[in-house]
Amino acid sequence: MKEAYQYIGKQVKVIIDRPIGSPHPDYPKSIYLLNYGYLPNTISGDGKEIDCYILGENNPLKEYEGTCIAVIHRKNDDDDKLIIAPHGKSFTNSEIMTLTHFQEQYFESEIIRSSDYLEYNKNIPELSVTNLNNSLEFYKCIGFKIEYERPENKFAFISFGEIQFMLQEICDNDKWDVAPLSYPFGNGINFQLEVDDVNKIYKSLKANNYKIAFEIEENWYRKNDVLLGNREFLVQDPDGYLLRFSEDIK
């Protein structure tokens, strides 16, 4: 995978040996829904050239020059794939998996991006906080990381897996304040945050002397005729925003 990873962010020239609409050489009933080719003079884990998916081009091609925006790493195969897109154009992880599903459905795959890549959620709450440093200390205890900051504005963008928040310290001339704030902030709303390990977060908060609002419990919620189970607990952040950490019961 290291050989493939080095191409992320670089312009590359791909030779197309399986243009869009062509059948798989070994499985004729399987049709390529993307232009598919290889990077000359390279060696992948299977001993052949590194393969490439071409995104954003809908006509059959013979060769193509574009930017490698990601690598599909196959966990159960030694044949990683470069994701090539037109210069200046990006695709989300979800879009990549959808477009390559016709072939990647047969493998256990993950998408590798550059270390500075950030995929923004469609809905990102921005929380007004009284003290940014206190809030960051709390969220770091949970496992959040700072994606970027604007210290001059006392602003931070934080993430924990696919969970994202913006934190903005309150100032006197904040145009977003439509009414005076009083503790607890966000009264009337709780953020349900789906995580893999409720116990780990719970223990970290307890070890750092943060008060748990509602202890861990098992709850079942009806979705039409199906019951969905969660192990969950609630905690208030330093400004009183209520966070509900939830783990699926499988």
CATH superfamily (homologous) name of the largest domain: 2,3-Dihydroxybiphenyl 1,2-Dioxygenase, domain 1
Q: Element order, helices and strands?
A: HEEEEEHHEEHEEEEHEEE
CATH architecture of the largest domain: Roll
State Rg: 23 Å
Ends apart, CA distance between termini: 32 Å
Give the integer mean of the pLDDT values. 92
Strand percent estimate: 35-45%
Number of strands: 14
The largest sheet, given as strand count, sense and whether it forms a barrel, is: 5 strands, mixed, barrel
Describe the structure.
This protein has 250 residues and is mainly beta. The chain folds into two domains: 111 residues, Inorganic Pyrophosphatase; 123 residues, 2,3-Dihydroxybiphenyl 1,2-Dioxygenase, domain 1 (Roll). The chain has five helices and 14 strands. The strands form three sheets. Strands 1-2-3-5-4 form a five-stranded mixed beta barrel. Strands 7-10-9-8 form a four-stranded mixed β-sheet, covered by helices on one side. Strand 13 and strand 14 form a beta hairpin. The longest helix has 11 residues. The radius of gyration is 23 Å and the shape is elongated.
